TrEMBL record:
GO terms under cellular component: cytoplasm
Reactions accelerated catalytically: [(1->4)-alpha-D-glucosyl](n) + phosphate = [(1->4)-alpha-D-glucosyl](n-1) + alpha-D-glucose 1-phosphate
Protein species of origin: Tolumonas auensis (strain DSM 9187 / NBRC 110442 / TA 4)
InterPro entries, per the entry: Glycg_phsphrylas, Glyco_trans_35, Pyridoxal_P_attach_site
MF (Gene Ontology): glycogen phosphorylase activity; pyridoxal phosphate binding
This protein's name: Alpha-1,4 glucan phosphorylase
Taxonomic lineage of the native organism: Bacteria, Pseudomonadati, Pseudomonadota, Gammaproteobacteria, Aeromonadales
Top-rank taxon: Bacteria
């Protein structure tokens, strides 16, 4: 037998791979084949994979250091990584080898992958986009680091109790995580609170000295990110907060067992959860501290790396690019200014010019309430030096840019100022991003247009070349090759092996869209995926559904602008039609939801409750003969999405036009052959352009029509009284029909749509949405037509590969060179 350690691990056959797994089971896990649990076998498999990852990681880092490469540093509050076992094996090209090796050991790789908890490092599209981007950066061979927070519990684990969302800690790394490595040699110390002293030097120069009231230790954990083909392995570096001196021995000895660890507990709170509830003053402060902590750690780490090969900061902007993924990392701007001026001794103007070249900003929202602002008094307490720097940036900007363009125009000054002078005074983080960054991008063509025209029109007048578009994308390695292997195999068999790197290669599939043989293969795979999901639904919810029904799926963060309430209203109307006419002509439907609501977002949580309560009544009603089912999948996460997306027939993308920045679930679902029912919003517009409007179902008001309707005065009551079905469905929510003995429990949904003005025009779009669903019903019954539409969707979404997105960033914003790792 060949010793596998004498040859490159990438060339291992299944027998040698098996040897390595058993070797790690015995030596790394300290157990034997006879008593090992599935978790132990999974950990041993991960250890074998890590041998390859760490070797390539070392090669990548050494090459980047030797070549002194320019790199992008992707700052994001979220990295929704999901599970990595299958993804890493596919990117290494060893999935089938590992699968065969484990079969020889009477184990199933798919079963072992289920042992892996999802990394709880994000919430929704923002975090999943970041995960796709760092995958693509490694795949394309660009030097890059992701920077974020090492959340102990992430957002939360969602449980559904009596229909209501209950938040519980997501202890995703309770028993360790085989993919991460602690790097104590790179620990950073981060100041907080305190005061700023003005010092006059012997040369009469004024210096600012920040005397912090507290120091927090930032401990880095690295997760290797392997690109497809495993030539480049970059890292995602996540910061864990710890107290610098976290145990008071004297207090402990005197019986103060809890007080002795008070500082430790307070420090660890910083990286405890994603997006702590900021309804309280303490919550607001924790969020600001959290954002500063991860940005300050990351910038100190960047400067440490830079100083290994440079003695001054003349080349800093040429070597370092920092992408701010939304406004959460904005505090990195004044922090870099502080480091350069206070710690490195640069002049203010020199530091400012560096910052303007280093930073770029991705905007993800047009909602005013989602553009972060912070009370000035909070900055004064937590980050006093940074507030001074922000004041200086603002004064410089208003004098040198705004006054030059609009002399003595105080109204424009008020609008563009970083400081909102209302009561209480607030720091506008988005304005700070736009003023500093050399490029600002939106994430879909319509979104980028609205960023310039509606959100930042005056900034666009000042700097028309600053704004650009980079339409989002998703990685086909995760969202097709890994999660839908049967379909991936069919595509490989049909068009060859290049498509995971060049998704446009799938356009060849369009030739087979009318071929009955190919249609049958394609739809048989869809049916098999639906049959697998039927079992998951039963296991997770106890609900029985049929794979022969239309699987209509809406999976995304719960927010009123995403309009889960529109979907619910339509379900109520369908249910009422079936009760009034049991012979109503409808193909059986299963409406599947997956979503988490922010803990403090009351209406969103009420929508979840309403979906569950309406679903309970519908699912148990024999009168409708199983024609309608409603399923709410608890604890929506990446690993659940990987089961839902391959099984979807219909993709619900129904946000109010002009409110969804892009969406990425729409791309994943179309890639797997789901038909989009959607508004002309976000990336839906570009998906419709790529697949053809005949191959998706578009409805609703356009962006312009939404603006016109709001301008002339929108009254939801007009639609309520004009449409008897809307009125009957909403009035139903006043009764106890869905909540026996508790009338009015679902009233908040009706109130949000009527009494509170229906901000997102649910009722205005209802009739069009209902008609679109009737088209879905007719199309699905024409099996050949539906199969053709599904195939063309899967074949036509090459544009939405995150590799293309990254190439757009590189060309327009980052100006990176690929680095060959020999």
């Amino acid at each position: 037998m060949v010793n596998p350690m004498e040859k490159p691990l990438f060339e291992l056959d299944k027998d040698e791979f098996k040897q390595e797994i058993v070797h790690h089971l015995r030596t790394t896990l300290g157990t034997s084949e006879k008593k090992a649990s599935k978790q132990a076998w999974w950990m041993a498999t991960c250890a074998t994979i890590n041998q390859m990852l760490f070797e390539r990681l070392t090669s990548t880092q050494q090459t980047h250091l030797q070549k002194d490469t320019r790199a992008v540093h992707y700052f994001s509050a979220e990295f929704l990584m999901g599970r990595l076992t299958a993804n890493n094996l596919h990117n290494l090209g060893l999935y089938k080898t590992c699968e065969e090796a484990l079969k020889d050991l009477n184990l199933e790789l798919a079963d072992l992958c289920e042992q892996e908890p999802d990394m709880a490092l994000g919430n929704g599209g923002l975090g999943r986009l970041a995960a796709c981007f760092i995958d693509s950066l490694a795949t394309l061979g660009y030097p890059a680091l992701g920077y974020g927070l090492h959340y102990e519990h992430g957002l939360f684990r969602q449980e559904i109790r009596d229909g209501r969302q209950v938040e519980r800690p997501d202890s995703w790394r309770e028993y360790g995580n085989p993919w991460e490595i602690c790097r104590p040699e790179s620990v950073q110390e981060i100041p907080l609170y305190g005061y700023v002293e003005t010092v006059f030097g012997e040369d009469c120069q004024v210096r600012k000295v920040w005397h912090p009231g507290r120091i927090i230790k930032g401990v880095p954990w690295d997760i290797p990110i392997v690109g497809f083909g495993a030539q480049t392995v970059n890292i995602l570096r996540l910061w864990e907060s710890r107290a610098s001196n976290f145990f008071d021995w004297d207090v402990f000895n005197h019986g103060g067992y809890v007080d002795s660890q008070k500082e430790k507990a307070e420090a660890e709170t910083i990286s405890k959860v994603l997006y702590p509830n900021d309804e309280t003053e303490a919550g607001k402060e924790l969020r600001l501290v959290q954002q500063y902590f991860f940005c300050a750690c990351s910038l100190k780490d960047i400067m440490r790396r830079y100083k290994r090969t440079h003695t001054d900061f003349k080349e800093f902007a040429a070597q370092i690019a920092v992408q701010l993924n939304d406004t959460h990392p904005t505090i990195a701007i004044p922090e870099l200014m502080r480091e350069l001026i206070d710690e490195e001794g640069l002049e203010w103007t020199e530091a400012w010019n560096i910052c303007k070249q280093v930073f770029s900003y991705t905007n993800h929202t047009l909602l005013p309430e989602a553009l972060e602002t912070w009370p000035v008094y909070l900055f004064e307490r937590v980050l006093p030096r940074h507030l001074e720097i922000i004041y200086e940036i603002n004064a410089y900007f208003l004098k040198n840019e705004v006054d030059a363009k609009w002399p003595a125009n105080n109204e424009i000054k008020r609008k563009l100022s970083i400081i909102d002078e209302s009561n209480p005074r607030r720091v506008r983080m988005a304005n700070l991003c736009v003023i500093t960054s050399h490029k600002v991008n939106g994430v879909a063509e319509i979104h980028s247009k609205l960023v310039k025209e509606d959100l930042f029109p005056e900034f666009n007048q000042l700097w028309p070349d600053k704004f650009c578009n980079v339409t989002n994308g998703v990685t086909p390695r995760r969202w097709l090759l890994s999660c839908n292997q049967e379909l991936a195999d069919l595509f490989t068999e049909t068009v060859g092996t290049e498509w995971p790197l060049n998704l446009d290669a799938l356009r060849e599939l369009a030739k087979y869209a009318d071929d009955p043989v190919f249609q049958k293969k394609f739809m048989d795979i869809k049916l098999h995926n639906k049959e697998k999901l039927v079992k998951v639904i039963k296991a997770e919810t106890g609900i029985d559904v049929s794979a022969d029904a239309i699987f209509d799926i809406q999976i995304k963060r719960l927010h009123e602008y995403k309009r889960q309430q529109l979907n619910l209203l339509h379900i109520l109307v369908l249910y009422r039609r079936l009760l009034l006419n049991p012979e109503y002509d409808i193909h059986p439907r299963v409406f599947i939801f997956g979503s988490k609501a922010a803990p403090g977002y009351r209406v969103a949580k009420d929508i979840i409750y309403a979906i569950n309560k309406v679903g309970e009544r519908i699912n148990d009603d024999p009168r409708i003969k199983g024609k309608l089912k409603v399923v709410f999948m608890p604890n929506y996460r990446v690993s659940l999405a990987e089961k839902l997306i391959p099984a979807a027939d219909v993709s619900e993308q129904i946000s109010t036009a002009g409110y969804e920045a892009s969406g990425t679930g729409n791309m994943k679902l179309a890639m797997n052959g789901a038909i989009t029912i959607g508004t002309l919003d976000g990336a839906n517009i570009e998906i419709a352009e790529e697949v053809g409007e005949d191959n998706c179902v578009i409805f609703g008001l356009t962006v312009e029509e939404v603006k016109e309707l709001k301008a002339r005065g929108y009254s939801p009551w007009d639609y309520y009284y004009a449409n008897a079905e809307i009125k009957s469905a909403l009035d139903w929510l006043d009764t106890d029909y869905f909540t026996p003995g508790r009338p009015g429990e679902l009233q908040s949904i009706k109130k949000s749509l009527l009494d509170y003005g229906d901000t997102y025009l649910t009722l205005a779009d209802f009739a069009s949405y209902d008609e679109a669903h009737q088209r879905i019903n007719s199309l699905y019954r024409d099996k050949a037509r539906w199969a053709k539409m599904a195939i063309i969707n899967a074949a036509s979404v090459g544009k939405f590969n995150s590799d293309r997105s990254i190439q757009d960033y590189v060309r327009q914003i980052w100006h990176l060179d690929k680095c060959d790792i020999s």
